[in-house]
Amino acid sequence: MATTDRQATTLALAHALSAAERGLAVIPLSRTKLPALRSPHRDDPEPEGPPCHGACGRFGHGVYDASTDPVRIRELFAAAPWATGYGIACGLPPHHLIGVDLDTKCGTDSSAALRELALRHLFTIPETVVVLTPSGGRHLWLTGPPDVVVPNSAGRLAPGIDIRGAGGYLVGPGSRTEHGVYAAAPGTAHLAPAACPPALLRLLLPPPRPARPGPPPTGDHGRGLVQFVLTAHEGQRNTRLFWAACRAYENGLGPALLTPLIEAALDTGLTEHEARATIASAARMTGHRP
Ligand SMILES: [Zn+2]
C-alpha cells in the first residue's frame, strides 16, 4: 500500500512536471481531487480583509500555489507526499485555460447538451485535448483570450456541463483518485489546447448584473426553477436542486427562493440538511454568500 502510494506520487509528479513544461501551472492533489496541502490559515480567525493567497510565503493556498517552476513543483510535492494527482490551474497565462467538464452523472447526457448548444449558437468544438475521467466524463481543454475572465460555473450552460475558469482547476491526465485514473483521450495528448470559439465564449461570460438593487420579485422564472426541482425523480434531485439554485443566485433570486427551493427539495425526499448544503454550494459556486 505504502509502495503503491509512493509510486502514485512519483507518477503524479512526473505528469505534473511535463504539464508545467507545456506552460500549465500545477498543484498536487490528494485522492479526493482536492488540493493536497491544507490551508495554513485553517485555524486562524476570519480575516478582516481579503483572504491570504500565498503572501504569507507558506504552501496550502489551493490553486494559488500553482506553478510552472519545476523547483517549486518538487517542493510542493515534497510537502504533500500523499498526493496522487495534480491539478492544472485555469485562467492563467500563457494559455488562459478553460475547462469544459462534461459530466455523465445523474443520467444527464452532457455531450449531447453541448452538441445542441453548438448547433443553436453556431459554433463547432475544435479538435483539442480531451481528458477522460474515471466516471466516464470528459474534460475539453480550451484557451481563452488574455483580457477575458471566464468564471467557474456549474450547470449554467446545461445540466451536467461545468466550466472551470479563473480560480478553478482541472484534474490533470495521469492523476490517480479514489475513483480511478484520469487519462488523455487517445490521439489528443499532444495537441495544443484549441482556442475557445467566440460564440461559446460569450455563453461562458457572466450575465450582466441586474441594474436595479433590492430583491426583485421571483416571478415566472422563480416558479419555473421551483417546478424544475419539484419534478426531479430520485437520482436527479441533488443535480436539479443545485442547477436551480445556481440560476436563482445568478439572477439575484437566491435569498428570495431559498425557502421555496428547500420546500421543493423536501417534497422530492431530500433532507433539509442535504438541501441546505446543496444550495450553499450553489451560492458559493456563483460567488454569493450562502
Ligand atoms: Zn497565507
TrEMBL record:
It comes from the Bacteria. Residues 16-200 form the DNA primase/polymerase bifunctional N-terminal domain. Residues 226-288 form the Primase C-terminal domain. Coiled coil: none annotated. This is DNA primase. It comes from Streptomyces cellostaticus.
